[in-house]
Amino acid sequence: VNDGDGLPRIILTEPGGSSAEVLLYGGQVISWKNDKREELLFMSSKAVLKAHKAIRGGVPICFPQFGNLGSLEQHGFARNRLWALDSCPSPLPPSRSNSSVDLILKSTDEDLKTWPRSFELRLRIILGPGKLTLIPRVRNMDNKAFSFTFAMRNYLSVSDVSEVRVEGLETLDYFDNLMKGERFTEQADAITFDGEVDRVYLSTPAKIAIIDHEKKRTLVLKKGGLPDSVVWNPWEKKAKALPDFGDDDYKSMLCVDSAAIENPIILKPREEWKGWEELSIVSSSYCSGQ
Ligand code: TA6
Asked: Which residues are paired to 150 by β-bridges?
C-alpha cells in the first residue's frame, strides 16, 4: 500500500479488530491500534515521514549500534534504510488469529563502507488479538565474526507520563545517560516520571509492566534474547531541542525498549541470533472492581 507520503507500507489486521501499519522504510511499525481503534504507539506530531530521516515514533529498529556506542550514526543505519519483503521466511507456527509480515534488510556495498560486515537482518511482525510480537534475527553472512548492539525502541502512547508507573525494573542496575553513562542501582519500588529519564536498565526480567492509570490500561512488555531495556523520556527542555518532536509531545509518550546493549551480541560466520518482544495490552477497566 502506498500512502500519501509515498512510503510503501503493509497493513496488518486480525479478526479481533486490531490493526498495525509497517513501513518498508526502516522496517518500522508506525501504528498499532486496538479493537477500539485506539492508537497504542506514539508518533511525534512533527515526525518526518520521509526516507533518509529517522521517523520519530512507532518502533524504530536500532542496528547495528545503539546510541553513540560506536562509530556509526546514532542508533545505527537500519532505521534509515529501505527494507524488503522477505520472500523465503522461515515457517511460522500456524495460527488462525494472527496476521504477520516478514521483512529483511541485507548489507549493501554502501553499508559495507561504514560497517564492513555482511549481514542479513530479518524482522517478523505478528499481530494477534491485543498483542503485537516482533521477532528480529541477525545472520552473519561474513567469513569473520562480528558483534553488534541492538534495540527495538518502543515509543508507547500514554495519557500523561507523570501518571505512569513502570514495574519490573526495581533493584536493577542501570547506565544513566544523563550522568555520563555511569552505573547506578535502582532504589525505587517502581519507576515514575517527573523529569528527563534516559537509562539503560541491565539484565531486566522477561516481563515489564507500563501502567497508565488515566487510561486504565497496562501495557506488558515481554522479551527474550534482549536482556536490557532503555527507558527514555526527553521531558520539556530536550523535547524543545528535537526538531521532529512536538513541544508537548513528551507528556504523552514513553520509550521502554527491548535491547542488547551492555553485552554486544557476537556472531560467528553463518551464525544467527534471534530475539523477540511481545507487547500486549491489559485493560484494567473491566477488573477495576476486583
Ligand atoms: O535513549 C537513548 C537516546 O540516545 C537518547 O539519549 C536520545 O538521544 C534518544 O536516544 C533519541 O535518539 P534519536 O536518534 O532517535 O533522536
From this structure: 260
C-alpha cell read off for 255: 520509550
The side-by-side arrangement of strands in the sheet containing 197-201 is 155-157, 253-256, 229-233, 197-201, 173-176, 182-185
ipTM (interface predicted TM) = 0.96
CB 198 near ligand 1, within 6 Å: yes
Going by alpha carbons, the residue nearest to atom 14 of ligand 1 is 74
CA of 67 to the centre of ligand 1 (A): 6
Predicted confidence (pLDDT) per residue in 156-186, tens digit:
999 999 999 999 999 999 999 999 999 999 9
Query: What would the pLDDT profile of 49-59 be if each residue is shown by its tens digit?
Result: 877 789 999 99
CB 35 within 8 A of CB 16: yes
Pocket test residue of 75, 155, 257 for ligand 1, highest count of atoms within 8 A of CB: 75
Residue 240 DSSP SS3: helix
91 preceded by a cis bond (ω within 30 of 0):
no
How many whole angstroms separate alpha carbon 221 and alpha carbon 173?
A: 19
Q: Is the pTM of this model over 0.90?
A: yes
Side-chain-side CA neighbours of 40 within 13 Å: the count stands at 29
Question: Ligand 1, atom 10: nearest CA belongs to which residue?
Answer: 67
